[in-house]
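A quick aside before the break. I want you to see a complete sequence-to-structure record at least once, exactly as it would be stored in a machine-readable document. Don't worry about memorizing anything.
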Amino acid sequence: MKNIFIKGLIGIIFSIGLLSIAASAKTKNSLTIESLTVPNDAQIYAENIASEMVSNVSLNPSFYGVDAADFSEWMLGNPYTIFSADNNIVNNNDVYYFPILDGDEIKVILSVYKVNGEWSATISKDNSDELNELAQLNDNNVYMLYTSEGKLYAENKNHKKIIEEVKIEIANKNSTSDIEEFINKSHQ
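That is the input. The structure line, written in tokens, reads:
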């Protein structure tokens, strides 16, 4: 049932093309991701913060999982969004992802989101390797990225690929007690 819903969702989104609410984020390596339109203020924030964030990566590339490079050549790519398709509801998680490119390769991803009404950002290797693999397929198809049941999928009309499986660990009673004890002690 869930699979039928997801396939229907993908079909509807691709058939209407998300005309009024979407844009396609195309990276220089010919990977196109169907996306909601990114707010102008998020775009401006990303443009303003990108060089500072890349500078942080250049100071410790191994921490970020990238090879030392000429970071001055890195540039901000077109943003994309990831949809959530859980509980038969489709929505965007209000995080805007900006690939940082070195030529035609996605090196890291700048994630822009609001915290207490103010824009904030993180930068990480995230799923850049997986997105580069999709770009290498040369199928020239538009992909949609979405999460469902703890997995991140990339899907187009030809195939579906799991990009990431998020493992959620449920705290057991002892660790919950430890957390409560820590909170109580910190307030004494």
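Two observations worth writing down. The two ends are 51 Å apart (CA to CA). Confidence is low (pLDDT under 50) at residues 8-28, 167-179, 181-188. We'll return to this after the break.
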